[in-house]
What does this fold into?
Amino acid sequence: MKHGIQHYSLIQASRFVFITLLTGMGIGLSVSLVASMFVTGLHFFTNHRHSMEGYFPSLQIAGGSLVPMIWLICAAFLLWGIRRMFGIARWHGPADSIFGAHRLDNEIDVKAGVGSTIAAFISLGGGASVGQYGPLVHFGATVGTYIRQSFKNITIGTDVFIGCGVAAAIAAGFHAPIAGIVFAHEAVLRHFSFRALTPIAISSITSVWFSTAIFGGDPLFALDASATDLLPMVPILLASGLLFGVIALLFMLALFKSAAIGAKTGVSPLVLSLMAAVICGVVAIFVPEILGSGVVEINLIFDGSYAVGFLFLLFVLKLLATSLCIGFGLFGGVFSPAAMIGAAAGGFVSKFLASVGIVTVPYLLPVAGFAAVTAAVVGAPISVVLVVFELTQSYDFAVAAMLAAVIATFFTSLVFGHSFFDEQLLRRGIDLSRGRGNLELQSQSISCVVSSDFISVRPDAKTKDAIEELIKAQMSEGYCIDANNKFIGKFALTELLSAPYQASIAQHLMADPVMLDHAASVLQAMEVASNFVGETIPIINEETGLMIGVVSEANIFDAYLTTQSQVHDLEHN
It folds into this structure.
C-alpha cells in the first residue's frame, strides 16, 4: 500500500486551506466564548459567595463562616441533579479527550462532555477545591468533536478538531496562544503534522484574540519578573525539582486513594459529594484559602503575602482538599490545584532558605514549583514552561521553570507513569504507552476477522471420514463440534494418518488446543499467535461453549497491517 502526503491541485489546495481556516477560527471562537463566560461566571459567583459571609453574621463561627459549607452542600445537590439529567455514570475530563484523540474513530461523548462542564462550573461556583482548566480542555475537545460530526464531508480528521478545541481552551484560559498550540500536540494528540498544526494554531490565536477583545486581556497571574543571574540558583532549582516531583507524586496518589476510599464506602454519589462538602466546609472555617481553583491564592503567593508556616499548611491542606473533592465527586480539574500546591511549596522553600541565610530570587521558586508540579501531573512540561514564558516574558524564569519541571516530570514518569490522565486511562484498561496502533488493536475484537472456512465433523465420525474431508479441502486441521455447534476438540491430519480408520474421531483429538474467546482483542490474538504452531486458532464463546469460527495467522497479520496503515495516514496526513 502506498503512503504519503496527498498532492492537491491549485483549486483543491485553496479549498482545503479555506476549510482549514474556517475550522480553526470557528472552533477558536466557540471555545473562547464559552471559556471566557465560564471564567467570568465563576468570578461572579465567587465574589457573591464572599459577600454573603458579611450578610449573615449569625453564621459566623470560630472566626470563620459556615456560608462556604452551605454553598458546597447546594453544589452537591445540583451535581446530583446534573448527573440524573444527563444520565452520566462518571464525569468526563481530559483523560477522555486524550483517549478520543487516540482512537481511530475519535469519538467523544458530546452529551457527557457538556454535562461534565456544567458540573465543573457548579462545583467551582460552590467553592470546591478543584480546577477550571481541565473541564475547559475537555469542553474544547467536545466542541471539536461536535463540529466534526456536523460536517461529515470534511477531510480533516476528528483528532485535529479535538486538538483545535484543546488549544483554544488553554489559550483563552492563560492568554498563552503558543502554549495552547504545544499543549494540544504534547498532552493530547502526541504527534506533530502540518495539517494538524495549521488549524490548531489558527484556533489558538483566534481564541486569544476573541477573549482579549471581548472580555479583556488582563494576565491571569501578576508577575513582575526582571532579568536575574540564574547561575547561582541552578543547584537549588535542581534539588527543588526533585522535591516538587515528590509532591506531584503524592498529589496524584492522594487523588486515586481518595477515589478508592469513596468507591469502597458503597454510598451513593450524592452522599459522597455531601461528605466532601461538609468536610471542606469545616476546614474552610479556619483556612478559607483552600476553596476554589486557587488562582487568587497563587497571586498572593507570588507576592510573598503568606508566612512560611502558613505556606506549608496551605500546600498540605490544598492537596488533601482537592483529593477529597475530586475523589468524592465534586468534579473539576487538577491543573489549577496542582499549580497552587506547587507555588505554595516553592514559596515555602524560598522563605525557609531565607530564614537560614540563603537568599533566593523573588518569585523564582514559587514559579518553579508552579511549573514543576503542574507539568508532572498533566504530563506536559514544554507546554507549562511556555505558559510561564508567556506570562512572565522572562527567559530566565522560563529556564528556571524548565529545570525544575523536567526533573519533576522525569521523576514521576519513572515512579508513576506519563501523567495523571494516563494513569486514569490505565486503570480503565486503556494503555497509551505503546501508541495508537496498539490501542486500536486492543479495542478491536477478534470477531471482526473470524473466518467460517474450516472443516468440522460430529463426535461420532470416523477418522477415515475426517481424513477424507481434510484432503478434499486441502487443510491440515479440523474441528469436532456437536449438533448444537458446541466445541468438542481439534484434530490434525498428521495424527489421524497413524490412527485406525474406523476409530472414533473423539478418541484422537488434540490435548489442550490453543483457543481464543470471541471477546478477545486482536492484540491478544497476536500475543497468542506469536507462540502458536498450526493452521488456525478456534474462536469460542467461553460462556456457551459455541464455536464462532477460526482465525489464521494471516488473518491476524492483515488486521495488524490495516491498523498500522490507518494510524500512518492519521499521523502523517
